[in-house]
């Protein structure tokens, strides 16, 4: 066990530059990358349509920031009924900011957006308490695109693109720096070397990040949130300085800089762990989770230790809101299916451990251009990837190249009805209804009483896939809606079936009389 962890650790440490190659190692589909002709998602219209989470958790008295995701032609005027005292809404930008109420409580807020093209309303339940991330966090993480070339300018550019492309209007909000922002001990590169810690003992950024506070200020000024990465070990996976024996001073520094998300990556901690039983695996996460939970700031805590010691059973108890359940999706080898299926299926086994504020994390969305090249997935595979992650209520972090986002990739990332499945406030992860060599059926109950069902064709030929009401524990007539095409398909009784292309998916919402 210990040996396999060491191997895993070594593997992750060699990853810095191998990741991109591995992520794109499977053969590119002969037809070339998907294009506009493959788009299924209808374009959002000019009328305002509020998107995004319907439930939002925050801690009492902490700074609050939420940009209302809303598509539609600007200018749009925003308003909100029922906002708790201490929070104000900027009517032009739709950004809610201020301080959360000092006592726990639930506030049923109704958001509105109007313009000359129409009007939209949507409920938002603000829950002041101890649970953050009531719906899975969404955003962008730089790792698979920039690895050890990440800079302040690239993070700022990603924030601009998140707004400019409209991704933020669908709920993507975190702009997260991964590894390689700190000093690399022993490096002779003037940008990366130098003292790893400041006079007070806190971690220093390397020369590519001249002013962390200015960076988070600029991200916050857009209504977005900022994330950071560190390791409980002496060094990170890529050999940069880690937080070992400096956890408290570092946690305070991250809050002082204004970060809203922290990924804590095991890596070289194996060298100092002193054991590999569950207590030793839990220890560094309980330490940092406790510190982060006591800061005067809401920081989502993301455990990254590749699923060791069944982290899904205890990640939430040590202060985590999400935990990686597997190794890196970009290192996963393809067999007849791309690697994300294997990662997704392994993550799917932990459905019962997911809940609001406690999410299984199967790693990032690697679609479109990732690193230097297209990821090599077909249109069907990209739709399947996003469908699987959404059904599993996974954190939705894109890690491809923001500067090379095309219309097709955006159409996969930004389908409001698919994202609603991921963000459903009930927070139930899809269960595996059926899995065989050739097909996979996932089903996720939703808050309004309807159920999202994904029929995945794992085979090499188009096939008819069916699911029966007996398998779904349903009865009677149900309305069927195709979520990718956002089209009603009529009603079905006793079963539903569809023809699904090679490696494709049919993602539907089944609504009975009460939904
Ligand atoms: C590990 C993690 C990745 C990434 C790299 C950074 O491999 O699992 O997600 O953070 O480290 O070095």
Radius of gyration: 22 Å
CATH architecture of the largest domain: Alpha-Beta Barrel
Biggest sheet overview: 8 strands, parallel
Q: What is the count of β-strands?
A: 27
The third-level CATH topology of the largest domain is TIM Barrel
With strands numbered from the N-terminus, the spatial order across the biggest sheet is: 16-15-14-13-12-11-10-19
CATH class of the largest domain: Alpha Beta
Tell me roughly what share of residues is in helical segments. 10-25%
Task: Give the ligands present.
Answer: alpha-D-galactopyranose
Q: Quick one: CATH superfamily of the largest domain?
A: Aldolase class I
- Count of helix runs: 13
Sheet/helix structural class: alpha/beta
Query: What average pLDDT do the residues reach?
Result: 94
Described by the principal axes of the CA atoms, the overall outline is: globular
Estimate nothing, just give the exact number of structural domains: 3
């Amino acid at each position: 066990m210990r040996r396999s962890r060491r191997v895993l650790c070594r593997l992750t440490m060699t990853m810095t530059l191998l990741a991109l190659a591995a992520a794109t190692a499977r053969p590119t589909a002969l037809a070339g990358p998907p294009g506009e002709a493959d788009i299924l998602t209808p374009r959002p219209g000019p009328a305002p349509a509020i998107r995004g989470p319907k439930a939002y958790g925050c801690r009492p008295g902490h700074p609050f920031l939420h940009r209302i995701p809303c598509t539609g032609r600007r200018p749009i005027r925003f308003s909100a009924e029922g906002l708790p005292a201490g929070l104000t809404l900027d009517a032009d930008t739709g950004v809610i900011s201020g301080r959360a109420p000092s006592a726990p409580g639930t506030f049923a807020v109704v958001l509105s957006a109007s313009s000359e093209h129409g009007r939209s309303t949507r409920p938002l339940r603000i829950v002041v308490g101890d649970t953050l991330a009531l719906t899975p966090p969404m955003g962008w993480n730089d790792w698979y695109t920039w690895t050890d070339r990440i800079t302040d300018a690239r993070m700022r550019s990603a924030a601009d693109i998140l707004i400019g492309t409209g991704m933020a209007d669908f709920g993507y909000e975190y702009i997260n720096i991964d590894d390689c922002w700190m000093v690399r001990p022993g490096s002779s590169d003037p940008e990366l070397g130098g003292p790893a810690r400041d006079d007070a003992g806190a971690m220093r950024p390397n020369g590519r990040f001249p002013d962390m506070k200015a960076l988070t200020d600029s991200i916050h000024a857009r209504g977005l949130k900022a994330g950071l990465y560190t390791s409980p070990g002496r060094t990170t996976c890529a050999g940069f300085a880690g937080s070992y024996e400096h956890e408290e001073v570092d946690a305070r520094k991250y809050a002082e800089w204004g970060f809203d998300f922290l990924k804590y990556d095991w890596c070289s901690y194996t060298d100092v762990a002193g054991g590999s039983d569950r207590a030793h695996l839990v220890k560094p996460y309980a330490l940092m989770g406790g510190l982060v939970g006591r800061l005067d700031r809401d920081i989502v805590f993301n455990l990254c230790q590749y699923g060791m010691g069944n982290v899904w059973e205890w990640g939430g108890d040590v202060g985590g809101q999400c935990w990686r359940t597997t190794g890196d999706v970009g290192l996963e080898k393809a067999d007849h299916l791309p690697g994300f299926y294997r990662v997704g299926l392994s993550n799917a086994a932990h459905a019962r451990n997911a809940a609001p504020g406690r999410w299984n994390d199967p790693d990032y969305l690697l679609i479109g251009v990732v690193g230097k090249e297209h990821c090599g997935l077909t249109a069907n595979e990209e739709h399947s990837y996003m469908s699987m992650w959404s059904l599993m209520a996974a954190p939705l972090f894109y890690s491809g190249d923001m500067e090379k986002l095309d219309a097709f990739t955006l159409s996969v990332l930004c389908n409001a009805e698919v994202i609603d499945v991921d963000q459903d406030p009930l927070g139930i992860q899809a269960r595996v209804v059926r899995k065989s060599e050739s097909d996979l059926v996932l089903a996720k109950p939703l808050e309004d009483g309807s159920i999202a069902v994904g029929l995945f064709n794992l085979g090499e030929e188009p096939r008819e896939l069916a699911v029966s009401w007996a398998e779904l524990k349903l009865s009677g007539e149900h309305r069927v809606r195709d979520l990718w095409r956002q089209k009603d398909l009529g009603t079905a009784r006793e079963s539903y079936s569809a023809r699904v292309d090679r490696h494709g998916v049919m993602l539907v919402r089944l609504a009975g009389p009460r939904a």
